[in-house]
Design goal:
By secondary structure, the chain is α/β, with parallel strands linked by helices. Helix content is 32%, strand content 14%. It is built from twelve helices and eleven strands. α12 links the parallel β10 and β11. The longest helix has 14 residues. The structure holds cytidine-5'-triphosphate (CTP). The site of cytidine-5'-triphosphate (CTP) has 20 residues, from α11.
């Protein structure tokens, strides 16, 4: 059987994955997974040779001023000017300065979370990272609600908030931002030129409505540094996904890392269908020029780390 999958180029690839979920069989959460402290520390040290989450998680105020010209990371020929609003929202110090957490959850957006009952377990971690402003309230039993850091690719404004075409969508985004209640909102503003206006809209809303979030805008070198680390470890990813970026950053400030909602396959381990996202109707095969990810390859690397005890992947129900 052949299926279209997320791949690393702008055109979907056709691959045989008749036994994909067998290949990726992962024991349930309660099985004998043990954290490998030595390996985790070794990985942290190796990653530190490429990037430092404390620094690369955000550009700081002191390093830019309004009007400065920035070349987009993926569109080197296109530039943006640092706006007054962006400047105002840059943090003065790293939002993770000096932080160390005993356990962190990184919540990916796969539909594998549905009916997992993982919400309480996720919320019990000391630091919870989520991706792309994914909704939580209506799915709290499975995904939890605690959010210490949430990412927001500019494309989310288009995909989940209809590019704020009318008051209803603006209000929806406002509600979501208000609900963040002091957590870190991580916006990759300097990656691709397409996000320019969307980032500006969000910045404006945050300032105008005095929204209580701590904004962070990843450094220009982060993407290449993360890619460099994984390439050195023979994981040839063209463009790391948000989930992999978060894992790579988290190794700096989390002693134990638990991953939920990472499952880039249309069938689960029992061959039941899995939604691409737990909260929308985006289909497998979704791929765009702006987002040429290599999720199954990343998953393989994460699975190996799970087996070695460097992180824990949960891809089924929680206890
Ligand atoms: N993810 C996954 N399996 C899925 C969907 C998502 O493992 N079926 C993980 C990926 O690591 C992904 C993260 O969850 O980065 C968050 O999901 P999503 O919002 O879809 O992120 P991206 O695909 O990285 O976002 P974009 O396409 O906008 O870059």
């Amino acid at each position: 059987r052949a299926e279209v999958v997320i791949n690393d180029s702008s055109s979907p690839a056709v691959v045989d994955r008749s036994n994909e979920s067998i290949k990726h069989n992962i024991k349930p959460a309660s099985s004998k997974w043990r954290h490998n402290q030595t390996l985790s520390l070794k990985i942290r040290k190796q990653i530190l040779k490429f990037l430092d989450a404390e620094k690369d998680i955000s550009v700081l105020k002191g390093t830019l001023k309004p009007g400065d010209v920035i070349h987009y990371v993926f569109d080197r020929d296109s530039t943006m000017n640092v706006s007054q609003n962006l400047y105002e929202l840059l943090p003065r110090t790293s939002p993770l300065k000096g932080k160390q957490f005993p356990t962190c959850a990184i919540v990916g957006n796969s539909g594998v979370l549905l009916s997992s009952g993982c919400g309480p377990e996720i919320d019990a971690h000391s630091f919870v990272i989520r991706c792309n402003l994914a909704p939580v309230q209506e799915y709290s039993q499975d995904v939890g609600v605690k959010t210490d850091l949430v990412t927001m690719n500019p494309s989310v404004i288009q995909r989940a908030f209809e590019d704020l075409v009318n008051e209803t969508w603006r209000e929806k985004l406002l509600q979501r931002l208000h609900s963040l209640n002091g957590s870190i909102l991580w916006i990759p503003a300097f990656m691709a030129k397409g996000g320019k206006e969307r980032v500006e809209w969000v910045n404006e809303l945050i300032l105008k409505h005095h929204i209580n979030v701590r904004t962070a805008y990843p450094s220009l070198r982060l993407l290449h540094a993360v890619r460099g680390y994984w390439l050195t470890n023979k994981v040839h990813i063209k463009r790391p996904t948000t989930g992999l970026l978060m894992y790579t950053l988290a190794t700096r400030f989390c002693n134990q890392i638990y991953l939920y909602g990472f499952w880039p396959f249309p069938l689960d381990q029992n061959q039941n269908p899995v939604k691409y996202h737990y909260y929308d109707s985006l289909k497998y095969g979704y791929t765009s020029q702006a987002s040429p990810h290599t999720m199954p390859l990343e998953f393989k690397a994460l699975k190996t780390l799970h087996q070695q005890g460097a992180l824990k992947l949960t891809v089924g129900e929680c206890d």
